[in-house]
Design brief:
The chain is mainly β and 333 residues long. The strands form four sheets. Strands 10, 12, 13, 15, 18 and 20 form a six-stranded antiparallel β-sheet that branches. Strands 2-9-8-4-5 form a five-stranded mixed β-sheet, with no helix packed on it. It has a five-stranded antiparallel β-sheet with strand order 11-14-19-16-17, with no helix packed on it. It starts with a helix and ends in a 6-residue tail after the last strand. Bound molecules: calcium ion (3 copies). The site of one calcium ion has 10 residues, from strand 13 and strand 20.
Length: 333
């Protein structure tokens, strides 16, 4: 068996040489499979202090002796935000290793130091490279931000909390999905699933969204902290449309589109909902509403975010952050 492997290898090596001569590449390079791994030019960031808000670019570059998997892991020291850049090309450059300041999911990065670790998972003997970056300006969101709870309670918002529940904006405890603040509901309500809610409205009129529902996404961060799981707690959304344009929502004659999102685990979830799809239930049937039944985001006048949880499970806690509408694709933190 050993002999056969040797012969196969010799044949492959010969074949590879002939291919090189013919300058044809149609399979794995033998040097990539069996060659020694070395770092020819160190993989480094082009800058270590970056202001994404000002349009600065940050990327890694360097050269390896062969094509092999590499992973550049970025972790926010305060937020715990994470982003991984991966590739397998021996040339690491702006074309395959640029970081735009974004995270894989919530939480997003903040103004903070970011720890970088570069590893080569397929190489038995390889160094780990470490750097620290300083972010002085954040990547700008694309979309219509409804609120990230950074500016306090809006003038037209209303909130509800059960008598044993505390609900409101909390800041500066490094728990936010994005920014410094988020909305927290927590308490024990043994008599009811309902815990607390916040009805978010613009200071005046509608939110000013586009007319088309089909390419519009509603996005929000939700973190279930206590009483967690798909049979234990959920967010109930109400999307209310002012169809007759009188500045008020009438639940008897206008569309209130409801949607339930059940909690999964204790991490931040990025909820992304296509606005047009909100008119359908899980089975694809059109839900019943009291208005014209048309999905009209330009008429959206309020969004209610309601935290509910199983009353038999004791204290329930949920966090909500960063309500933002995006066009054509879901939000990326
Ligand atoms: Ca926030
Ligand atoms: Ca109305
Ligand atoms: Ca409607």
């Amino acid at each position: 068996m050993k002999k056969l492997i040797f012969l196969s290898f010799a044949f492959l090596a010969l074949y590879s040489c002939r291919k090189d001569e013919a300058d044809v590449v149609d399979g794995p390079n033998l040097n990539d499979l069996f060659g020694d791994f070395t770092i020819l030019t160190n993989i480094e960031p082009n800058i270590t202090t970056v202001d994404f808000d000002a349009g600065q670019e940050l990327f890694f570059s360097g050269e390896l002796s062969k094509n092999t998997d590499w992973v550049i892991s970025l972790i926010g020291n305060d937020t715990g935000a994470r982003r991984a850049l991966t590739g397998s090309d021996k040339n690491v450059s702006i074309s395959n290793a640029e970081w735009d300041g974004g995270a894989n999911t919530f939480p997003g990065f903040g103004i903070e130091d970011v720890s970088v670790e570069i590893t080569f998972p397929d190489e038995a003997i390889a160094p780990t490279l470490n750097y620290t970056l300083t972010v002085t300006g954040l990547k700008q969101d694309e979309g219509v931000l409804i609120t990230s709870f950074e500016d306090g309670i809006g003038s037209n918002w209303t909130s509800f909390n059960q008598s044993t529940v505390s609900g409101g904006i909390v800041c500066s405890d490094d728990e936010a999905a994005k920014g410094d603040c988020y909305y927290k509901v927590s308490g024990d309500v043994p008599w009811d699933w309902a815990k607390g809610s916040v009805m978010i409205r613009p200071d005046e009129g509608t939110f000013g969204l586009q007319g088309s529902a089909s390419n519009l996404y509603f996005n929000m961060g939700f973190k279930a902290v206590e009483n967690v799981g798909p049979t234990n707690s959920f967010i109930l959304f109400w999307f209310d449309e002012d169809e007759n344009g009188d500045g008020f929502f009438d639940e008897n004659t206008e569309d209130r589109i409801a949607y339930e999102y059940w909690s999964q685990d204790t991490e931040w979830d990025l909820i992304s909902l296509n606005y047009a799809d909100l008119q359908f239930d899980e089975l694809g049937n059109t839900i019943e509403t009291n208005g014209n039944g048309l999905m009209e985001p330009s008429k959206l006048i309020s969004i209610n975010v309601f935290f509910l949880a199983n009353p038999e499970n004791g204290v329930s806690t949920g966090y909500v952050d960063h309500l933002i509408f995006t066009t054509d694709e879901p939000y990326t933190p």
